[in-house]
Amino acid sequence: MASFIIKRFFYGFMVVVGVITLVFLLFTILPGDPARMMLGQRADQQAVDAIHKELGLDKPLVIQYFNHLNNLSFLSVHSTNEKKVTYLTKESEYVHAKRLVSFGETSLILKVPFFGKSYISKREVSVILAGAFPNTFLLATLSILVAMIIGITVGSVTAVINAAWFNRIVLVFTAFGMALPSFFAAIIMAWIFAFLLSDYTGLNMFGSLYEVDDYGNGEVLQLKNLILPVITLGIRPLAVITELTRTSLIEVFSQDYIRTARAKGLSGFRVVVVHALRNALNPVITSVSSWYASSLAGAVFIEYIFDWKGIGVVIVEALENYDLPVVMGSVLLIAIILIIINIFVDIVYGLLDPRVSVT
Amino acid sequence: MANTPAPLLHVEKLSVGFRNGHSLFQAVNEVSFDVYNGQTLGIVGESGSGKSVTSLALMRLLSDRNSIISSETIQLNGNPISALTDREMRFVRGKQIAMIFQEPMTSLNPVFRCGNQIIEAILAHENIGRKAAKIRVMELFSQVKLPRPDDIFLSYPHQLSGGQKQRVMIAMALSCSPLLLIADEPTTALDVTVQKEILQLLKEIQKNTGMGMIFITHDLGVVADIADQTAVMHHGSIVEYGMVSNVLNNPQHPYTKGLMACRPSSTIRLSRLPVVGDFLENKWPDGNGQMMKELGLHDKDRITRHENMFKETPILKVKNLQTWFPIKHGLFSQVQSHVKAVDDVSFEVYPGETLGLVGESGCGKTTLGRSILRLVEPTSGKVFFEDTDVQTLNKKSLRDYRKEAQIVFQDPYSSLNPGMTIGHAIMEPLQVHGLLPDNRMRKEKVYELLSQVGLEASHFQRYPHEFSGGQRQRICIARALAVQPKLLVCDESVSALDVSVQAQVLNLLNHLKQTYHFTYIFISHDLSVVRYMSDRVMVMKDGKIEELAEADQLYNHPKSAYTQKLIEAIPGKNFTLNK
């Protein structure tokens, strides 16, 4: 088990390095100039050059790449000599930096990875991400939980009933849920529940977790703003989970060990919930994990429409503005999340089914 | 059965029908039988005869959505159980009637520890604590003679061998001291030696507890070994019912006669196995003597044929062949050790010979067969086919070799592509090897092949699912024959088939051999079948050759202790066809 986790984290680390390199290359090869984006198309060459110099974009690509890695690593090399500086980021910009050893002007520093600063807002990328990620995390986690609980329950019930007419009704709903585009669903949900029925529901058309209220109390926690985005984001996974649970359970019902369980004289409930469900959950877990991972990476449409200040919105805005450090930081964060979820899911597989060896 | 006590289970006119759309399929047709305390009723029949459905109907384990069960009476210990509600029936299941199933591999829930699965059964019926239940489980484990009960208690099913799993199943069935045990083909999936142990165990437990038992099997030999009464089922009806010795020594119904005759016998050699059809048509009205006369073979012919055969140069020479599979572990998947599936094996096969290859599961017989064809790459050693070193063949000449040496696999259900018509499946090797100038002629050839294996030209456009197991195996044989090979490896090719169908396929293989002068390597776990088919028999154990000798020689005078043990374990060995 330990060897398995170490192995997976090692592979994960290699993937992260690959992602860093790929994103870096993409943004240097792609046309477009951050300085122009910041200053507008009519800016004069001097101003553009000044910004290039400030951002280190006038340096050769190799130096830029090295600096990029140097910033992201926990350990980094740094020179105190301002004149022959090849390390573009100043030591003072690092957070919690601690000098380990020095060789003359060069020193080795232990620090928190530095994602750089936004070209646009000049805020640190880590601060921007730390502000947006909890919102996305809350939204994604709640919606997948809701989808799982309802989906597995409804899927199990339909599998047990397994009557043709009932299956057809469920199939209509699940097909509808799967086919419904999320941007459309979001608008419809907001329109129905927060506009037409707002007198009864008391919900807002949009709003984030913390809102500035109208009475000058500063930021106030608005839990009710979660309801609509959570439901909307949950619709598609709910449909998928319901259908997967249903088909997978029906398949498991025909297995020999279910017959054994019934021949033991167990109650129908115990046969379904204890013996069948655990065996049926594998495909469900696979789909849950991929849905969870993708909504953690930002459910762009839903965050946008409900004005939910999450990672999705951050990425879209950064892409619009050619805000390279923010994009790189977000992509890196998403890659790490996906890797962690995958490792976690593999462990869950092992816990659910002892035949899956996690070695 | 004169002067008998009241039966433990009394079944009268039990019928089971399955609804399929608007039509009704009668799976079991008014069967009646009794089971007595301390005795065993053996229900024999082939697949589809309704024997399993009968037992499932007794336990009411069939879905009531598509099945219709009717009966005049079903009494357990004098109490009618057919009128019980589903809830009441739950307390009969497991408590009064317990059941064990055919596939120990799939009958235990893979995600729960063995011990907990049995505790669950105990707690469902008895008002005792978990601790007391665990003590009971330990007792049961020692009763079914499981080694290291503590480890088995904590094991998951996949960590145990087939025999051990079946013992766990038996322990589970016995956990609430049932009055009646229904065993549905409990030993079919197991090796003969394990089968023998399990049968002995069941007998012993029955002797100690006095429970009644229904033993369902397709194997008359097993019935001869274990049952007191027997019921022979055919197409949903009991065609013959009585004491085992009566039924087997003096079968009345032609189906029973056929079923008995189509098993390869351990005492006499026949030129062709009689099939059930022969008896249904009443081909030999004067009894078995007439059949022997017609089909009997003389040992002398066999000996002269062997003398001539072994003078020729071998068609296949295997020298020190090794096929090892690495076991990988650790952070960088280092090779820790090897599974020696085939370990230093040397032998020769002569043209026109059938070399039988027997051994228990995991002995390496399948890997050996595949290594010879290079479907698995051997680790070291040499295989010479007509003096060509098979190991050194490149991709192109390997393809030519595949034309010469073909294989027929075990499972006819999974070795045919379900999306391809059988005509195309047979035609494909002809196209791949570029035999015959065009597709029209190839099609002609396929028609010819189909008729050779007893199928019709009109089957060309049909898909595999439209055929029965025996027919599918014929299709696989036709596919192997299409390229006109010299060597045919039959890897457990009849193991998945019913005995009567098995006889037909064996006859077909022998017929084709005579026509085309094939050489066979016949791999099987069934010693009677191998003996019937083979000129020489090779016994394998743990990847090594245990013994290699002429078939009759090997059976009558086995040299190695392991071979003796295998032959000893053949069920119904002491019971022979009445002449």
Short description:
By secondary structure, chain A is mostly helical.
3D structure, described in words:
The complex is a heterodimer of chains A (359) and B (579). Chain A has 359 residues and is mainly alpha-helical. Chain A has a domain at 125-352: Orthogonal Bundle (MetI-like fold), CATH 1.10.3720.10. Chain A is 66% helix and 6% strand. Chain A is built from 14 helices and five strands. In chain A, helix 1 packs antiparallel against helix 14 (324-352) and helix 11 (268-296) runs antiparallel to helix 14. The longest helix of chain A is centred in the middle third of the chain and has 37 residues, at 125-161. Chain A is globular and about 80 Å long. Chain A starts with a helix and ends in a 7-residue tail after the last helix. In chain B, helix 4 (114-125) packs across helix 5 (130-143), helix 5 packs across helix 7 (162-174) and helix 18 (439-452) crosses helix 19. Helices cover 39% and strands 24% of the residues of chain B. In chain B, the strands form four sheets. Chain B has a six-stranded mixed β-sheet with strand order 7-8-9-3-10-11, with helices on both faces. Chain B has a six-stranded mixed β-sheet with strand order 17-18-19-14-20-21, sandwiched between helices. In chain B, strands 1, 2, 4, 5 and 6 form a five-stranded antiparallel β-sheet that branches. In chain B, a hairpin with a 2-residue loop joins strand 5 (73-76) and strand 6 (79-80). Chain B is globular, with a radius of gyration of 26 Å. Chain B is α/β, with parallel strands linked by helices. Classes of the chains: A mainly alpha (359), B alpha/beta (579). The interface between A and B is medium-sized, with 24 and 30 residues.
